[in-house]
Amino acid sequence: MAFNVQTFKTRALTAIIFVVVMLAGLLWNQWSFFILFSIVHFGCWVEYQKLVATFHPDYARITPLHKYGIMLLGWCMMLYFTDSNRWMGSIRLSEIVFWLGIALIIILPVSIFFELKSTPVINFGYSIGGLLYLSLSLSLLLSMRLLHVDQTGVARGGEIIALLTIFSLWINDTMAYIVGSLIGKTPLSKISPKKTWEGTIGGVILCAIVVAIIGKIMEFSIYHSIAIAVIAGITGTIGDLFESKLKRMAGVKDSGSIMPGHGGFLDRFDSLLFASIFVWIYVQLAIVHH
Asked: Distance (Å, rounded) from C-alpha 196 to C-alpha 194?
């Protein structure tokens, strides 16, 4: 695959916009990050349900209670993971979320199995899959944002970990494209023919180097910075392939059109959806409980 300057400029511009938006939400305060990813959450759910309904038409006939209730349950999961002590005036949000979540957990399965559809079990499976794929992954990202770890004798906020995760995905995608365009010859997968093993491996290596430098500048552990970069680079690529598989099954090029010419929410956050889960696991095992 020859290196295309215009394509590279487009990808770089998209990545810059992505990072700027993430930084604004990440660094402003906890609420801005939650609001930002609440929008991402519902946007991803709308596109996910549309894709599933395309390759499994029966899913298009689920009831509004099922369709929007499962999204709301996922949002409750996100709010639960952000902070158990959030208040809105005199109302403790965690209590509202807890009871609303319990109600939805009871009501949704009952309503789904009473749907007059031929495959309620399969439809329920796709909805549960969406909770794991979309809601849980974003919940864990929000959870990392609130972590407080100490790697240098100074209290550090979890925003650094979230920031390094986002940077890793941006850098890995850019580096993988450059390396793959210049020396890529071996296709990585039939799902995405343009991806090569050379580009994938080169992207992860260069990403680790760059993120290690960023970690050093931010006075964060170089070891953990490299680990986060490698984990995010590898699992982010898998997330990209997974979303490409969904689109191939649905027979579409993009999951949506939030950014004209650049795709939808899932196209922009497919890597993050997978990477956040595995980075969270690493952080819990190697940093928080080490």
From this structure: 6
Helix axes 222-250, 159-183, angle to 10 degrees: 60
For tokens 């992505």, name the residue. 18
Q: Other CB atoms closer than 10 Å to residue 89's CB: what's the count?
A: 5
Question: What one-character-per-residue DSSP string does the chain give?
Answer: ----HHHHHHHHHHHHHHHHHHHHHHHH-HHHHHHHHHHHHHHHHHHHHHHHHHHSGGGGG--HHHHHHHHHHHHHHHHHHH-TT-EETTEEHHHHHHHHHHHHHHHHHHHHHTSS-S-HHHHHHHHHHHIIIIIIHHHHHHHHHT-EEESSSSEEETHHHHHHHHHHHHHHHHHHHHHHHHH--SBS-SSSTT-BHHHHHHHHHHHHHHHHHHHHHTT--HHHHHHHHHHHHHHHHHHHHHHHHHHHHHT-S-S--SBTTTB-HHHHHHHHHHHHHHHHHHHIIIII--
Integer Cα distance of 196 and 181 in angstroms = 9
Residues of the chain with pLDDT under 50: 151-155
- What pTM was computed for the model? 0.86
- In the prediction, which pLDDT does 155 show? 39
